[in-house]
Input
Amino acid sequence: MRLGLATAATALLLALAVPAGIRARQPQQRGGAVAARSAQEAAPIDLTGYWVAYVTENWRYRMVTPAKGEYRRIPSSPAALPLINAWDPAADERAGNQCKSYGAGIIMSVPGRLHIAWQDADTLRIDTDAGNQTRLLRFSASTAATSASAPPSWQGESKANWERAAGQGAGGSLHVVTSNLRSGYLRKNGVPYSERTTVTEDFDVATLPDGGRLLLVNTVVEDPVYLTGPYVVSPHFKNESDGSKWEATPCSAIW
Amino acid sequence: MFCHLVTRLVARRVGPAFLLIVLAASEAWAQFDFVGSWAPIGTEDVQNDSVPVDYLGLALTEEGRARALSYNGSQKSIMEHQCQGWGAAYMVLGPFGLRVTSQMDPLTKNVLSFTIGAWEDWNEMIIWMDDRPRPTEHALHTQAGFTLGHWEGNALVARTTHVKAGFIRKTGVPLTDSATIDWRFYRHGDVLTVLMVATDPVYLVEPEIISKSFRLSRTPLDYR
Output
C-alpha cells in the first residue's frame, strides 16, 4: 500500500511537471528534434497538392491593378513615395521587370494557384501558375544554395523548418524565412520593397467545416528601406483535388 | 541478491510511474499563451474598406444580396437599434484589438474559458473550454452567441452558434441567426492570426473565410 501511494505520488508529480516542460520547450523545437530524419519524413503537416487562392482580404488591391499612388494599408516609408508616384508599368515591361510584382514579398498574395511538392527530401517546391514562379524552401543547410554569393532573385533564398506542436501526431507549422531578394512590388501598382527585405512566413493547414482543407500563410514583410514597420498579411488557399484548373500565365506589369 | 532487490524495487516503484509519465507526456497540450492584449495591425482590408453597396468577393445568395441592398446605415440611429451593436464576426471585421483573459477552475486550475473583451459596440465573447453541452436549438440567441473551444494541434479551435441575426460587413451584408462561425487562432511569435469561417444557409452560397492578424501589445488595450 505504501509502495502504491509512493508510486502514485511520484507519477502525479512528474506527470504534472513533464507536460509543462514540454510546453516550455516548444519555441526551441524548430526542427531540432527531428534533425536525424529528412524534412519530408519529419513533416508534421502535409502541404503538398494543388491550392487555389481564396481572395477575401485586400480584394480591391489584389484582384485589380489599383490606381497609381494607392498605397493605403501598406506602411510605406517616405523614401518609397517617389517610387510609388513614378510607377510606370510600360517601362517595367521594356526593362524586363514585369515580374516585380511576383517576388517573394507578394507572390503568395497574387491570385492564382499553387502546386506544392517535394523537389527532394529536404526541399519543398512551390510553383505558381500566376507568373510561372518557383520557390524552393530549403530545410537543410547542405541543400541550400551559396546564398551569400548568389545574386538576388525574385524568390530569393528561403530557409525552412518545421515547428511541431507538442503531443503525438499533433501537427505543426512550416516556418520560412526568405532573403536575398531582388527589389520588387508589394502591390501591383508599384509600391516597392527593397533588396534588404526579409519575408517571414508561417504555413498552417486547417480543416474546413465541409471537410475541405485550407492553407493559411501568415506573412510578415520587413524592409528597413521602404517600410516604416512590418507589412502583415495572411493569404489563404483552398485545396484542389488535382491540377486540372492550372492556368500558367507569364508575368505581367498590369492585370 | 542486493542488485536483484533493487531491480525489483525500481521496477515496482518507478515502472508504473514512468508509464504514467509517458502517457501524460504524450497528451501534453499543444497550447500557446492566448491571454493578453492583441493590437490590430491594419495592413489587411477585410471589408473592402466599407465601400457601400460593394460586395466584391462575397458569395451572396440572391436573398442575401437583396437584403444587403436594402440596408441603410441610418437605421442604426433608430432608437430600437442604437444598442444593437455588432455580432460575433465583427471580432475580425472590426477595427479593434483583442483583450483576452482566461478563467480557471479554482480547484483544478484548468482553463474553463477564455473571454475576448468587449469594445464599444461589440459584446464580449466567451470561449468555453470545459466541454459543456451546447444549448438546445431554441435557447437564447445573443450578439456574441455561444462558443465552445478546444485545442487542436497548434491551434485553438472554436465554433460559435446561437447568434442573433446580424451582419458580416458593416455595409449591411446580412447573416441569419442560423449562421455558424468556426474560428481558428494561431500564434507565431508575437503575431496572432484569427481564421474565421462563417457559414449561413440562407444568405451565403459558400462559407465566407476571413483571416486577420494581431500583434501582441506591450501595453494593455483599453476600449472602455
